[in-house]
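tool_call: predict_structure(chain=1)
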Amino acid sequence: MLLDTGLLLSATYVAYGLLTNLTLILLVGIAEGIVFVFQQPVALGLLADAAPEDARGQAQGIAGAVGAVGGAASAFAALPLYHATHLLPFLLAALLTALGSAAAAAGAAALTRQRRPHAVAASAPVAAR
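tool_result:
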């Protein structure tokens, strides 16, 4: 789900750079919001699962701070990129989103594989243990 929604978000970012019709831009914005609503809880749940139990709040705080700094930096970087070619900041956002989603999906898969033997052992009948 992380990879799928990340790729859909990447497609919306590219669409913003290509579209000039306000109605289409609004429709893409609605689609982006719907996709984001499904991705955000999954990403935050993954972050909570990956963090040690006593450091979950700290992990959420660090992730939020990194996101805020990244958002501020991208706001300053977008203007010169836009003046170079108006599509560039949207393509860069799409690329970074796709890469981040792929990394998160790979991390989720690794975390699942790492924890699966424990889940299988816990669900086995007592006689089989």
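agent: The radius of gyration is 19 Å. Proceeding to next step.
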